[in-house]
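Reviewers of the previous submission asked for a worked example of the structure-prediction workflow described in the proposal, so we include one complete record here. The input consisted solely of the amino acid sequence. No template or homolog information was supplied to the procedure at any stage.
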Amino acid sequence: MKKLLLILTVLLVTNSVSSQANKAVKSGEKFIYAASYNMSGLMTQLAQVTMQTETVKTSKNTLLHLSCQATTFSKWDSFFKIRDIYESYVDPITLRPSLYKRDIFEGKYTKKKSTFSKVTEKLLKVP
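From that input alone, the workflow returned the following structure tokens.
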């Protein structure tokens, strides 16, 4: 399931970057996919993956917020529950990332991580 989410995220970013950067991703876009898994030869829809964009204004910048959420359908939660959120805040023109966050909950595995870009670290003076 992790591989499927990673592939979908990479495809979204790759398609965006390979197009014209300033026109590839626009605020207000939303995509909803059903993630499937091959169970005993049958493709079974197990989760919903939602990708969306929005404009976020800070005191100094306007950023594009890219969000990807994956959630197993409730009937599959007793087998393997997934609640993943991947977020990135990027410059709307160049798509240069300022902040990347992920909050992973897959079964008993959890992980939270935030990563600032070098430029953002200098602006915020993060040690």
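Residues 67 and 87 are 4 Å apart (CA to CA). We consider this example representative of the routine output the project will generate in years two and three.
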